[in-house]
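Shipment paperwork, digital attachment
Item: protein structure file
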Amino acid sequence: MAEGKNKNSEGQPSKKSVPGQKSPAKLPQKEQPKQVVPTKSTVVVGSSVSLIKKADEVGEEIETKPLKSFEKKEREKIVQSYERLIFKMVREINNSRQ
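Attachment content:
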């Protein structure tokens, strides 16, 4: 008798649709799974490691050689260089969040 519940009036098994499950062929174009296209971030994975190393090295060097250890003229040039680096880093971080 339990089988009778799953058949329609013609005696054929009824097709129940399960909410949330759609066949890929019937999905609208915007819901179709997108093909994975290599982007810069996936292509340049090897260079990200070298970039991380360089950033860490610069940070360590700044800690080992504080600005006070340089003469005033050199200090001004170093500060300008730090400012350019910080500006580029902040701009890159902000662009990556968009």
